[in-house]
Design a protein that fits this description.
It is elongated, with a radius of gyration of 18 Å. It contains 4 helices and 8 strands. With 159 residues, the protein is of the alpha+beta class. The two termini are 35 Å apart. The protein is 25% helix and 28% strand. It has a 6-stranded antiparallel beta sheet with strand order 3-4-5-6-8-7. A two-stranded antiparallel ribbon has the order 1-2. The protein has 2 domains: 35 residues, no CATH class; 103 residues, Aspartate Aminotransferase, domain 1 (Alpha-Beta Complex).
């Protein structure tokens, strides 16, 4: 999935955030638009580790790039090589003992079932795969997301 930054009609100058991180950031700077705050290289590594998993979607959220599985956010690439990881809250105390793993906070509030995993904890592909598998396994235990209701269309076009 590409996230587009731009103004006006399609084809106007903007930037696409996807597999070409540096090019995309340069395009956003030229258009005087904000760049993404997440680590593009980590996002690419997560994307590769999640290839083959059914129901994966990407969504720009919280200044990062979230990876959702069947609508449930499993993890997200954040800044400086760190990632947000959704885990079984019962496993969190044990996981917090690992080097480079801390509690996830937003606006000063702890987020139950979420951990902040620093770059040092996912340096190798094996370490990253372990976290991806853990997060995907946990969100698979969650109830299915309800289908979003669609807004009824007007019978007559607006004038």
């Amino acid at each position: 999935m590409d996230v587009q930054f731009g103004l006006g009609e399609a084809g106007d100058e903007g930037a696409q955030i996807g597999h070409t991180g540096e090019c995309a950031r340069a395009g956003a700077r030229r258009a005087n638009l904000p760049t993404m705050a997440y680590d593009v290289e980590l996002a690419d590594r997560i994307r590769a580790a999640m290839s083959g998993i059914e129901g994966v979607a990407e969504k720009a959220m919280f200044g990062g790039l979230a990876f959702l599985v069947h609508g449930h956010m499993a993890l997200a690439a954040a800044g400086k090589g760190s990632m947000m990881a959704r885990v079984d809250p019962a496993q969190a105390p044990e996981l917090l003992q690992r080097k480079g793993v801390g509690p996830m906070e937003m606006k000063g509030r702890g987020m139950t079932g979420w951990l902040l995993v620093e770059q040092e904890a996912v340096d190798t592909e094996a370490e990253l795969r372990e976290w991806v598998q853990r997060c995907v396994a946990f969100v698979a235990t969650l109830p299915p997301k309800p289908a979003k209701a669609t807004r009824p269309r007007a019978l007559h076009p607006r004038v």
